[in-house]
Design a protein that fits this description.
It is found in: Nucleus. InterPro entries: Znf_C2H2_sf, Znf_C2H2_type. The protein has about 260 residues and is an alpha+beta fold. The chain is about 40% helix and about 15% strand. The chain has 9 helices and 18 strands. Strands 1-2 form a two-stranded antiparallel ribbon. It has a two-stranded antiparallel sheet with strand order 3-4. The longest helix is centred in the N-terminal third of the chain and has 12 residues, at about 20-30. The radius of gyration is 30 Å and the shape is elongated. The N and C termini lie far apart (about 95 Å).
Length: about 260
């Protein structure tokens, strides 16, 4: 330990160790030997310490506690990584852009920005992703799973970000403000589209008549002039319309209420 001598060498990868026991444990990486088995789920481990940590999944034991926020963990390594939230320590640095990260796993994910690597593939449509979480979220398109529920109106959504945006309907929160006219919006996309009023930008073009539009929705509605599609139908007289606003105006014919007064 004091001299740094490592007389025990692995014949496969040439890694060296100071104790024969350490070499013996290391060799299990190459042989795949897992002599330590969980009595509950039969999962095997190459080291007894890994089995001890694993058993805490079944027992719920969390002996490692953060002194700052009292959060508890089943492994000392997880506590060590957690502590970096409080200390701001970021020991892992990207060699390309010098960005610093607090976890080795975060660095591995970050490197995919530079390499373009997308190791996670959807089995249904073959779309590829750089992170497993992105693939998991994508799969909800195919499964129709909507695990996030609004506590106010009980609408279900497939993404946590969608739920956050949806909640603004109930709270009235509009965190995105136009720098020119101070108009506020609940979504960043709505602000982006609004800015085209000031810039005059119209990036969406009709392929039939070349008319330009500032939003994809406006273009989609316009296309119905050429296709003749009228997806909005009056439930009373079956008259059909190209957009919802025309249907809404039409519905006043049948309504007893007449909201516009001279």
């Amino acid at each position: 330990m004091h001299t740094g001598e490592k007389p025990f060498k692995c014949d496969i990868c040439y890694l060296r160790f100071s104790a024969s026991g350490s070499l013996k444990k290391h060799m299990r990486i190459h042989t795949g030997e897992k002599p330590f088995k969980c009595n509950m789920c039969d999962q095997g481990f190459s080291q007894s310490g890994n089995l001890i940590s694993h058993m805490r999944i079944h027992t719920g034991e969390k002996p490692f506690k953060c002194d700052i926020c009292d959060e508890q963990f089943g492994e000392s390594g997880r506590l060590k990584r957690h502590i970096r939230i409080h200390t701001g320590e970021k020991p892992f640095k990207c060699d390309i852009c010098d960005e610093r990260l607090s976890h080795s796993a975060s660095l591995r994910r970050h490197m995919r920005i530079h390499t373009g690597e997308k190791p996670f593939t959807c089995d249904i449509c073959d779309e590829r992703f750089s992170e497993s979480g992105s693939l998991k979220t994508h799969m909800r398109i195919h499964t129709g799973e909507k695990p996030f529920k609004c506590d106010v109106c009980h609408e279900r959504l497939s993404h946590s970000a969608s739920l956050r945006r949806h909640m603004r309907i109930h709270t009235g929160e509009k965190p995105f403000t136009c720098d020119i006219c101070d108009k506020q919006f609940s979504q960043s996309g709505s602000l982006k589209m609004h800015m085209r009023v000031h810039t005059g930008e119209k990036p969406f073009k009709c392929e039939v008549c070349d008319k330009l539009f500032c939003g994809s929705g406006s273009l989609k509605t316009h296309i119905r002039i050429h296709t003749g599609e009228k997806p909005y139908k009056c439930e009373i007289c079956d008259v059909r319309f190209t957009n919802s606003s025309n249907l809404k105006k039409h519905s006043w014919i049948h309504a007893v209420e007449k909201p516009f007064k001279c």
